[in-house]
């Protein structure tokens, strides 16, 4: 007989997947509107995405700021605050969004190549491929530690010819706001600072549901890209 706990966690996972599906629809709308283009500033794109999300998707809050990074800014991480720049014709542009749909957090990131540089196209193509590789490794052993999965993501990036650009490779996601879940915040991240099994419950005694982040940077640090989805 299926336990009540399992039914609740199945429902939570389904709600998170539904939120991600809506976030993917938001990305489709962003692309149809041609918002990612040269000649506009990162801030202008962030604001246009906010307007689109509110108008067409009913998004009233975002659990983290909308992030659009281009050119040299796309080697930075979310906590950085690089100077706002105008998107150039040969840039990689990454977009990282955290819309909240009916109190459920989505967290999704995607990169776009505007020019024809083959190395930039290779990096962007490698992002979902390495995501799938790291995700498959995790599902082979969901009890691995956050530190172990982070190390695997680093190794996978190096094997593909890139540097892993993130200080973390993901974090938990939940009902808004997961940041208020009690306990050591490091244990809610996929990072070298998390020595605990990722299958451990959170500070409220519930299952952790994870976001996986793949941030790749060219060996010389000249450009990068970002991709994230539910793990």
Please provide a written account of the structure:
The protein has helices at 4-32, 42-57, 118-140, 146-159, and strands spanning 67-70, 92-97, 100-101, 104-105, 108-113, 163-164, 170-172, 210-217, 224-230. The protein starts with a helix and ends with a strand. The model has no long low-confidence stretch (mean pLDDT 96). β3 (100-101) and β4 form a beta hairpin. The strands form three sheets. Strands 6, 7, 8 and 9 form a four-stranded antiparallel beta sheet that branches. A three-stranded antiparallel beta sheet has the order 1-2-5, sandwiched between helices. α1 packs across α2 (42-57). 35% of the residues lie in helices and 17% in strands. The protein has one domain: Creatine Amidinohydrolase (Alpha-Beta Complex), CATH 3.90.230.10. The chain has 231 residues and is α+β, with helices and mostly antiparallel strands.
